[in-house]
């Protein structure tokens, strides 16, 4: 949905994502910008080029910020770096929860990167879709508590990241819509986007919103249960931290088993047909009609920016 | 639930429904009565004896009116003619959406025709039930956008037609109740009525309403999500047309694939056991106790009318 | 969750529960304490040591009161006696409905009896868990109308009994919380508790409440659909009776078939893996870490009481 062009990784690297960021990972040592959370001991920045991680060892919570300007489109790099950053935190016993938020103004994430889906070859589409699946599976089943601090617009793939979290806090800005609007681009959400939607807002609301490609303004998102809280924009992070505290009050083991019980069947549906889902995506996106409409859409975006 | 007696078609004709209406189809040429929608070019009436179709080629929308007085009971003829009319519109590229409404005052449809279920032979019951299934499958999976303009009472089978639509607009009249009230007649809704209910209002509300045979007044129907809008009676059709415009703003192909993704599993459940469902219905309805209670009920209705 | 210590029955007796209460069943003849319901003809008390049954033959409704002070913890005896009392009413054609309520002040039921789950041997844990399953299966699929008159706190196992009913009326007392709070004790609700929760309040609310071990105060319980009515404490029983009247207005046979249609799939999930579920429970509860945390918790409770 955005124009995040850039270097691509070879397909096989995705299977060994830990090998990818050897050079791009920035080991920073500055204190976190967010002095409000106390700075001090645990507060140091790390992460990668497109994912900024602000860990707070004292609380066991890290804030993970998407930084893929201008609109955090989910390029292959961003997807890969998100998975790596999440892996890192999951393997570090210090951390029990992660807040996902955006470092770009006014956009949480604009969703899938259309430039990854247009004018490439089938192998690239397959690689890209596998990375989309991977991010979803990792976040949806994460053993960590994930809270989405949604500080900007949150359509399509952005919404899927939010849906994978345990809890969603949305800034009360009428421009910050959230939802799965794929149909309006002439494409369809895959079945597992649908499953995540149904699990969150129910069958009927999903049926209607998915077909209409509806983007919910904050008040409606709250009402339909797509987000758990809507708060003034400057309170999104603090509210997300309060929510996090509620989730961290629960013993990890019992919470993780319960999370798995609630989500495993849905994740398994994708795991059972992961390759078929990739093939579906590739053959769909390779259609002339789809490529043409994506090109037209991208051209419009380029002109708007130019 | 009503007394719509009439000629019956042979069972095999149902398998080739296009052969049925050769003589009864009225090719009318009067302009549509609904001058508000502009009349003009595309506005001509067609349809059959019991289904009045007002097509508007310009908008790609047809209004389909049930006309089986006094209460649009779903006789075998009406079911058959509805399927044929829908088929006709689906096969005509001019049309993208259909509004389903009633031509009879105060009743959308009173539901299944009890005279089809009482005092006949098993073969007739089987034929009738197959026609009920067929209408549901065709409407539930229709590639067209279907909007129900519910301008009257909408119990049982009437509610099932409404549930098969993509969107439901109900007139705000306290007498226009909607719901699946089968249990109050001592019969049970089949599993696929239940599935459609659960998909629309959720498991708990369905469990309660189905067991109680509850008919929702408009405000409660809106609250539980059984209908999408409740509007003054004289705005039902115009609101349905506005809703239709929202659905037609979405590219057909993406919308149809999404609709199918949402509904296929539910329809497949019936398709997989369609014959068994017919046998269940026939053996249930053939029971002496059921036949007796239907006769008593019909007799009451006849006396009330007489 | 409570300290209801007492004599235990041998494991094999659970398989023939009718043999258990030969000596403990009290055949009482006093009129029901609840004079408001008229006393008179049908009103005599029967039941067992821990289950008080007040039958009203005229209305076909019995009130079943849990009497396992101080907090109606679901000891093996209470579970067994509940199943027996329910059996008795189901096999007596006089009765069509049962109201479940508490005879202990301020607590509907505190849930599973932790003393049954701590410091015993695996055979005992297996026996206990089978009894928990049995009560749930019997209540969830009961052919009778079951209405929960929740006149006190209703956590964990107490909530499961309420969820198995057809309808739930909760006293409007801010201390009477209801929900599945297992995670807060470091244990997890089994999948069929989860299924019952999802069927009642939906997937998302269950996901959140189950992980957080959230106990809903009355107003929130009503809003999320966990209970059907919240009324002043002194109107709980009368409201439950009014609700019962609505359910009894429906022909039994049609209602029972419909109830079965709504609930059979969920019950079958447990029935298919009942033994595995017992084994899961036993191996989980036998873990050193779980036994230790239960001991700590029980010790705290004992000190609080001492």
UniProtKB/TrEMBL annotation, chains A, B, C:
GO cellular component: mitochondrial matrix
Annotated keywords: Acetylation, Fatty acid metabolism, Isomerase, Lipid metabolism, Mitochondrion, Transit peptide
Gene3D superfamilies the UniProt entry points to: 2-enoyl-CoA Hydratase, Chain A, domain 1, 6.10.250.170
Location in the cell: Mitochondrion matrix
Top-level enzyme category: isomerase
Signal peptide segment: none
GO biological process terms, semicolon-separated: fatty acid beta-oxidation
EC number(s) given by UniProt: 5.3.3.8
Catalytically driven reaction(s): (3Z)-decenoyl-CoA = (2E)-decenoyl-CoA; a (3E)-enoyl-CoA = a 4-saturated (2E)-enoyl-CoA; (2E)-tetradecenoyl-CoA = (3Z)-tetradecenoyl-CoA; (3Z)-dodecenoyl-CoA = (2E)-dodecenoyl-CoA
InterPro entries assigned: ClpP/crotonase-like_dom_sf (IPR029045), Enoyl-CoA_hydra/iso (IPR001753)
Molecular function in Gene Ontology: delta(3)-delta(2)-enoyl-CoA isomerase activity
Family to which this protein belongs: Belongs to the enoyl-CoA hydratase/isomerase family.
UniProt function note: Key enzyme of fatty acid beta-oxidation. Able to isomerize both 3-cis (3Z) and 3-trans (3E) double bonds into the 2-trans (2E) form in a range of enoyl-CoA species, with a preference for (3Z)-enoyl-CoAs over (3E)-enoyl-CoAs. The catalytic efficiency of this enzyme is not affected by the fatty acyl chain length.
Name of this protein: Enoyl-CoA delta isomerase 1, mitochondrial
Native organism: Capra hircus
Taxonomic lineage from the root: Eukaryota, Metazoa, Chordata, Craniata, Vertebrata
Gene symbol of the encoding locus: ECI1
